[in-house]
Amino acid sequence: MRQPVDLPKAYRLLNHGPTVLVSAQHDGRQNVMAAAWAMPLDFEPPKVAVVLDKATYTRELVEASNHFALSVPCQAQARIVNAVGTHSGRDQDKFAAYGLHTLDEPAAHSPLVSGCVAWLDCERLPQPEQEGRFDLFLGQVTGAWALSRVFSSGRWHFEGHDHLRTLHHIAGGQFFAIGQPVDGSK
Amino acid sequence: MRQPVDLPKAYRLLNHGPTVLVSAQHDGRQNVMAAAWAMPLDFEPPKVAVVLDKATYTRELVEASNHFALSVPCQAQARIVNAVGTHSGRDQDKFAAYGLHTLDEPAAHSPLVSGCVAWLDCERLPQPEQEGRFDLFLGQVTGAWALSRVFSSGRWHFEGHDHLRTLHHIAGGQFFAIGQPVDGSK
Fold it and tell me: What PANTHER family does the annotation carry (chains A, B) (predicted)?
């Protein structure tokens, strides 16, 4: 079941470095792309940073709408993540082409991708110079949700749910799934 | 054995989202801190982005020296990563306090931390406004190395070396080790 995540803990959805799907919509058009280059930027209000190449259609929609969402995909979606990361949505609706659905989440400004394990809805913090020079986009998180089966009380717990483990892209469609807990506090 | 990594493939050392150690030195002083908020920013020349809080001593040294290094620690170092991430180096030399050694790598401008599995030596790309407003630092990678036992020919391969798996911080000294390969290309 999808549950809201307290905004001051939203950074924990990205803190361990998963590859994400970036989505946006504007004026009846929507698109989704994969991005390994995304990270938290602040705790409260939570902010994120993500790299969006100039060639991407998603970037056009982010610039037009001033909103984007980050959906955190899982092991079961590896082929889809690779596919949406290697094809452009200029010529076809990638949601339709890859059988992707969006969640019915009225509070979200951008499409949240079904089948993922966490979602961050973000408002762009326009930085024209850095966007132009480094393709670096910043956003403030305005809503966050996670699948309670693998994230609750601010913690990920993937035991017994290997297919829901987050994906961490290496290159060329090769990923790692996130692995075992390691306690560094003792 | 430590081997140089071709700079156009240096992004692969960070692409899967590991927590890193950020280190810098200036005028005989050095420091190291942990950072989960780091990511690649470009392929060639390779660039990185990392968040350095205003309170950190490492940030002072980065601003003074215009250089920093990212070392990628491993499972065997979880306690040290947590320790250097929760104590400040203003009062004590963290390298001495935690028994950390630096590599003898003449090409590096900043200290590279022994026992890690990969290293990126970076030159700061000063962005005073973004550094001040978002604590966001950018750097160009000028040298990269990795432990050939777990990274060679541009690929990570951790099989049989669990203690060398990269660490992915969740919160409060709790990490995940990176897990199993997942092929999304077929």
Answer: FLAVOREDOXIN, FLAVOREDOXIN-RELATED-RELATED
Closest by Cβ to B177, choosing from A134, A179, A186: A179
Query: What are phi and psi for residue A133, nearest 5 degrees?
Result: -85, -35
Structure ipTM over 0.85, yes or no: yes
pLDDT at A87: 83
Structural domains of chain B in order of their starting residue, each with its CATH number: 2-177 (2.30.110.10)
- Tokens (6 digits) for B104: 């003898």
pLDDT tens per residue across span B64-91: 999 999 999 999 999 999 999 888 888 7
User: Which of B127, B155, B182 has its CB closest to that of A78?
Assistant: B182
**How many secondary structure helices (H) and strands (E) does chain A include?**
4, 12
Restricting to B residues 123-152, those with a Cβ less than 8 Å away from any Cβ of A are: 127, 130, 134-136, 138
Residue B169: predicted pLDDT:
97
pLDDT of the residue at A151:
98
Who's near A17: CB < 8 A, 6+ residues apart?
Answer: A39, A168, B16, B17, B18, B19, B36, B39, B168
Q: Please, what is the Cα angle at B18 between B15 and B19, to 5 degrees?
A: 140
Q: Is some CB atom of chain A closer than 8 A to the CB atom of B72?
A: no
